[in-house]
Specification:
The chain is mainly α. The chain has three domains: 3-256, no CATH class; 281-385, no CATH class; 399-489, no CATH class. The protein contains 22 helices and seven strands. It has helices at 3-11, 50-63, 81-91, 100-107, 111-123, 152-158, 184-195, 211-220, 253-256, 281-295, 304-310, 312-316, 321-331, 340-347, 351-354, 358-391, 400-418, 427-436, 440-455, 460-463, 467-474, 476-489, and strands at residues 16-17, 24-25, 45-46, 127-131, 145-150, 160-163, 175-179. The strands form three sheets. It has a three-stranded antiparallel beta sheet with strand order 3-5-4. The chain has a two-stranded antiparallel ribbon with strand order 1-2. A two-stranded antiparallel sheet has the order 6-7. α13 (321-331) packs across α16 and α19 packs parallel to α22 (476-489). The longest helix has 34 residues, at 358-391.
Length: 499
């Protein structure tokens, strides 16, 4: 018997005598139908971590209980090293939600091959669907989420005892409570295989492989294959980078094996614990660009990579966003911006050479902050003046033409109110009363002047008259607009001014 065949035979469980001692119980063919490939319908149990799951993968690969060609007429012929490589990538994921494109990129296989091997893992009882991915026409594809399962045949072959801690929990949450002494040696071999990493085989220079090379490959690292089709791939010993996905505190199966190697754990990085990595030059550029797009209103919506390229010189000089604000105040900002990145490139030209010391940049920041404080005080004074204007006594209009029209309107109103006209004066009194009324041209001029003031946010001309007279002279529309402006002026969310 060759070395490879001996290694394969070591993983096939020996027949165990039945209870009556006369018959021999042989493990059935390992196959899970599609209806039982979901977590809710699976007969297996969830693996406590990726390392223990890889032990079950290697056992299935070497036992020969699952042969794909028994259940399908296409696809791979055996549960071989390629399937183990795909399983190694799945063992490192938590949660196990791999995309087809991710596995294609990691393994170098085609999309169809990845789908074949995922189907083989499900049929062998090593994977169970939690969520099945979907593909919608015109939209992104949703990846499937799997649960890493250990088939019941594995527990039966190694004599692993399980217990259900919570009676209300599903059956797939049962945990390991012990292992039979007869399975210790096989568990130790599986632990060594799970610690090694199966790599992509190198291209063969010849189709013929000597038996000596096959034996040497089996001694260096186990290659899983069924007995009738042995394919050897040398392995290299390495640490496992699998993530411990189990949430239970029970030890994995590898801990229960006698003489089994310790489960490898990934080494921690040599950096400071909890410390943040220091940004390089490119990172500082992008950090400054992101802060500028958030701080400056006229840079909102600009491309962060473009702003990072524009501000690369000041970022390399160690400038912060506050330094840039101080320089922009010193340089001067435009009131109307059409292209923010172009304006920033013009304003920052030569900035690192002018403010080349921290003292100069600090002085520019102080000037900018002083200007900000002065602008704030000026706005407060404007608000106070506007409040006093509307709440205090009436002020005459600033325009001379408007003042003359207002004075004439006041005079006409006073004459109409106290002129002493009576109906018994006859036609002469009526003519005098008509002469005191404003003409249509004068009313049109007053209304035009009032409309101009309303456009500027002022209501002095309309409010200079009593409500009834103002309604008769200016009309309901202008008076209503004046009321709306006065109501809005009392709100802190609305301001009026000249453009």
């Amino acid at each position: 018997m060759s070395g490879t065949a001996a290694a394969v035979a070591a993983l096939i469980p020996a027949p165990r005598p039945s209870a009556d001692g006369n018959a021999v119980s042989v493990l059935p063919v390992l196959y899970v139908p599609e209806a039982s490939q979901w977590l809710s319908t699976s007969a297996g149990r969830i693996a406590s971590d990726g390392y223990s799951w890889m032990q079950a993968v290697h056992w299935v690969a070497g036992s020969g209980l699952y042969r794909p060609r028994r259940h399908r007429s296409h696809g791979p012929r055996s549960f071989g090293p390629t399937t183990v490589r795909v399983a190694q990538e799945l063992a490192q994921l938590y949660p196990c939600r791999p995309g087809i494109e991710y596995l294609v990129r990691r393994t170098g296989l085609s999309e169809r091959s990845v789908e074949y091997h995922l189907g083989m893992l499900r049929e062998a009882g090593l994977l169970a669907w939690i969520v099945r991915g979907t593909r919608v026409s015109g939209g992104p594809a949703q990846a499937s989420e799997f649960a890493r399962m250990i088939p019941p045949e594995f527990d039966a072959a190694l004599g692993i005892r399980t217990v259900q801690r919570d009676e209300d929990a599903p059956a797939y949450t049962r945990a390991v409570s012990g292992i039979a002494e007869a399975g210790w040696e096989l568990m130790a071999q599986l632990a060594k295989m799970a610690a090694r990493k199966v790599r992509k085989p190198r291209s063969k220079t010849s189709s013929k492989v000597s038996a000596k090379a096959s034996v040497r490959g089996a001694e260096q690292g186990f290659v899983t294959a069924v007995p009738d089709e042995v394919r050897c791939t040398p392995m290299q010993v390495g640490t496992s980078a699998s993530s411990t996905a189990g949430t239970t505190s029970l030890p994995p199966e590898s801990k229960l094996a006698s003489g089994a190697s310790k489960s490898p754990t990934p080494k921690k990085s040599g950096g400071k614990a909890g410390g943040r990595r220091e940004l390089n030059a490119v990172g500082r550029r992008f950090q400054l660009a992101r802060e500028l797009t958030q701080e400056l209103e006229w840079l909102r919506g600009c491309s962060v990579p473009r702003i990072a390229w524009v501000a690369r010189h000041v970022a390399d000089a160690g400038w912060t966003v506050t330094d840039v604000r101080g320089w922009l105040h010193f340089r001067g900002e435009a009131a109307r911006v059409r292209r923010g990145s172009g304006l920033l490139a013009v304003l920052l030209a030569g900035a690192e050479t002018v403010l080349n010391t921290p003292e100069k940049r600090a002085d520019a920041i102080e000037q900018w902050r002083g200007a900000q404080e002065a602008a704030r005080r000026h706005r407060i004074q404007q608000v106070r003046a506007r409040t006093e204007r509307y709440e205090g006594d009436w002020d005459a209009p600033t325009s001379r033409a408007v003042r003359r029209e207002v004075e004439a309107a006041f005079a006409q109103v006073r004459e109409a109110a106290t002129g002493g006209r009576r109906q018994d004066h006859g036609d002469v009194a009526d003519d005098q009363a008509l002469a005191l009324e404003p003409s249509e041209q004068e009313l049109a001029e007053l209304r035009a002047a009032a409309a101009g003031e309303l456009m500027r946010g002022e209501t002095t001309l309309i409010r200079s008259l009593d409500p009834e007279m103002a309604l008769r002279i200016f009309g309901e529309r202008l008076v209503l607009r004046a009321d709306q402006l006065e109501d809005g002026s009392r709100s802190s969310l609305m301001t009026y001014g000249h453009r």
